[in-house]
Design brief:
single chain, 202 residues, alpha+beta, GMP Synthetase, Chain A, domain 3, SH3 type barrels, five-stranded antiparallel beta sheet, three-stranded mixed beta sheet, 5 helices
């Protein structure tokens, strides 16, 4: 899920060691566009934080490597972003880090005629994702390799939790609570986003 093509696989293999040395984990890479391409790198620190300053630092750190290796044979724009609040879940560890939160999954094959599922994440078991689906008594086990895309569902509680995990101070959290209470926060999301269609730009 971190890549969607062999070319993106090569790009990830090129930048991941350098990003790790700079203190960042690669969440996802996408090479998008036709005439003028955009190379998007979604990343975060091991603690899940990713500020605009972090994006700038990672961009500056990777630019010399990309210039030297020249892995994209056309003009392109480099964009480094955070995963966003309703973040994509692209790594096995993500499903453990967000236990208890609602997520939407899209599979690369059907299960009883369905490819899309939503429910509360319940961790992992062996190579499976555990999820409590609405209306089902037993926790479902879905092989990780069957998942084409997955993301958290944007809610008020998720906004609060994401800010808390990013180290927001009490003033920021109070301002958020007031905005949520006054219905001043507008959710902009797409429940049907495909793996290569959401930039989540910072």
């Amino acid at each position: 899920m971190r890549t969607t093509s062999p070319h993106e696989d090569k790009l990830l293999a090129l930048i991941e060691p350098a990003a790790r040395d700079l203190g960042y984990e690669i969440v996802r890479v996408r090479l998008m566009g036709s005439r003028r391409k955009t190379f998007q790198i979604m990343a975060e620190r091991p603690d899940g934080r990713m500020s605009s300053g972090d994006c700038e630092k990672l961009s500056r750190g990777l630019s010399p490597l990309l210039e030297a290796e020249d892995p994209i044979d056309t003009e392109y724009a480099l964009e480094v972003s955070s995963p966003g609040i309703d973040r994509p879940l692209t790594r096995f560890v993500d499903f453990d880090r967000w236990i208890g939160w609602e997520a939407k999954l899209e599979l690369d094959r059907g299960i009883e005629g369905r490819k899309r599922f939503s429910g509360e994440l319940a961790g992992t078991e062996d190579n499976n994702i555990c999820i409590n689906l609405e209306g089902e008594e037993d926790t479902a086990l879905i092989p990780f390799e069957w998942i084409a895309s997955a993301r958290l569902v944007l809610t008020d509680d998720l906004i609060r939790e994401s800010l808390r995990r990013r180290g927001a101070d009490e003033d920021e959290l109070e301002q958020l609570e007031k905005a949520l209470d006054d219905d001043q926060v507008e959710f902009v999301t797409d429940d049907d986003v495909l793996p290569d269609a959401d930039p989540d730009l910072t």
